[in-house]
């Protein structure tokens, strides 16, 4: 009584979507019934056999489908006839891309294409020094720039400036309550004080500071002053019980804890030898290599002069021009910065004696290159009033209690 859905017999013409049947909308459909008036789709009653995909009905194949038509019998999907009302969502007219609206990038006369070179020039960005100080403006009320403007300085920095200790030592002592400011203990790291505040160190800090060691090492060639690099060992690796000088006048003994925090105070190139200071005491390091340090460092430098007529290896002092020697004393610059005056004289015919109050990287070698000298040997023999003396190469000793740089 009810033919199968989508049957293609002659009694039922194909469903059409033209003007003979208005569009069926969801709200116009009657409610679906699931009671006895309409059996379920897959009911097994006698009047309608179950839908089978076997021999009674061959499977529907793609090639058996009738060709889809796009002619006048089936109008286009978006036809705008009067009998079919427009879709609710599309109340506006359909968007068109024909000649009524030119393409966005059309090349007609009404709108020329926008090219990169037609864009207006961007205003030049201000130079760095013309910009507003954004970083300072972003600081909170307790930040460093505002504190400095109010005259306060960091406590650890002030202690270092006064020569009480290094900043690292100050950061160790402050949380322990070993630092008093105007008679009151300060235990918070990063605290700031007035430059004229009275700072006092408790005896416990002095006692610990007194236990910190300073070592004098005769560095051999082939060791680097600081951290290991390019496969070369640091000079601190020589600080062992076996390498302590037997004639150490301090009579102190090596202990493993003395390695902690031991750092070089000043550099010696890998190709140089002589006195190298290793210390746990920040005051010693600041005194020797701080920005305001005036401690003298003395070197013996063996050279070869690359004269216009050829290299001179012997009796150089007799033929080396005096004006070039004067340039070594003052008048040279490194990295665009003028060097401090130096004491330079002949120690013997092939060896110069340098006394410097600064220590730039490879300074002596670079100074000599500027006047035609090639360094073939460099040895540091003194730092301040502490001399290398008879300390053998590769050996070390403690700095004596009464020795001062």
From TrEMBL:
Protein name: Dual-specificity RNA pseudouridine synthase RluF
Comp. bias intervals (Basic and acidic residues): 1-138
Alphabetical list of SMART domains matching this protein: S4 (SM00363)
Reaction(s) catalysed by this chain's protein: uridine(35) in tRNA(Tyr) = pseudouridine(35) in tRNA(Tyr); uridine(2604) in 23S rRNA = pseudouridine(2604) in 23S rRNA
Gene Ontology BP, a term: enzyme-directed rRNA pseudouridine synthesis
EC numbers for this chain: 5.4.99.21
Entries under InterPro entries matching the protein: PsdUridine_synth_cat_dom_sf, PsdUridine_synth_RsuA/RluA, PsdUridine_synth_RsuA/RluB/E/F, RsuA_PseudoU_synthase, S4_RNA-bd, S4_RNA-bd_sf
Keywords, sorted A to Z: Isomerase, RNA-binding
Keyword Repeat on entry: no
PANTHER family tied to this protein: PSEUDOURIDINE SYNTHASE FAMILY PROTEIN-RELATED, RNA-BINDING S4 DOMAIN-CONTAINING PROTEIN
Root EC class: isomerase
Residue ranges of every copy of the RNA-binding S4 domain listed in the record: 153-218
Region annotated Disordered, chain positions: 1-154
């Amino acid at each position: 009584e009810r033919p199968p859905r989508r049957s293609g017999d002659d009694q039922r013409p194909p469903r059409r979507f033209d003007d003979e049947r208005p569009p069926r909308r969801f709200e116009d459909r009657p409610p679906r019934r699931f009671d006895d008036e309409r059996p379920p789709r897959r009911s097994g009653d006698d009047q309608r056999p179950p839908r089978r995909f076997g021999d009674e009905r061959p499977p529907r194949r793609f090639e058996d489908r009738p060709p889809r038509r796009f002619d006048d019998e089936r109008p286009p999907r978006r036809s705008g006839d009067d009998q079919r009302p427009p879709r609710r969502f599309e109340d506006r007219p359909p968007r068109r891309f024909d000649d009524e609206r030119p393409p966005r990038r059309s090349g007609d006369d009404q709108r020329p294409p926008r090219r990169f070179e037609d864009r207006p020039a961007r205003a030049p960005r201000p130079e760095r020094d013309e910009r507003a100080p954004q970083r300072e403006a972003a600081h909170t009320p307790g930040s460093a720039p505002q504190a400095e403007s109010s005259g306060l300085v960091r406590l650890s920095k002030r202690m270092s400036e006064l020569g009480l200790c290094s900043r690292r030592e100050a950061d160790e002592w402050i949380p322990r309550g070993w630092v008093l400011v105007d008679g009151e203990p300060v235990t918070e790291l990063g605290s700031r004080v007035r430059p004229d505040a009275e700072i006092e160190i408790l005896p416990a800090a002095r006692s610990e500071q007194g236990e910190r060691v300073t070592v004098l090492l005769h560095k051999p060639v082939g060791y680097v002053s600081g951290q290991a690099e390019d496969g070369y060992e640091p000079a601190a690796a020589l600080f062992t019980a076996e390498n302590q000088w037997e004639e150490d006048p301090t009579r102190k003994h090596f202990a493993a804890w003395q390695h902690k925090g031991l750092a070089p105070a000043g550099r010696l190139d890998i190709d140089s030898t002589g006195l190298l200071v290793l210390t746990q005491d920040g005051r010693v390091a600041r005194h020797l290599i701080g920005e305001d340090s005036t401690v003298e460092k003395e070197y013996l430098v063996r050279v070869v002069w690359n004269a216009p007529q050829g290299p001179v290896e012997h009796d150089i002092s007799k033929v080396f021009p005096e004006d070039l020697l004067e340039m070594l004393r003052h008048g040279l610059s490194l990295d665009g910065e003028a060097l401090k005056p130096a004491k330079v004289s002949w120690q013997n015919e092939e060896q110069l004696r340098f006394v410097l109050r600064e220590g730039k990287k490879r300074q002596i070698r670079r100074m000599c290159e500027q006047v035609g000298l090639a360094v073939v040997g460099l040895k540091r023999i003194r730092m301040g009033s502490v001399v290398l003396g008879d300390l053998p190469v590769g050996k070390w000793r403690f700095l004596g209690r009464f020795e001062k740089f």
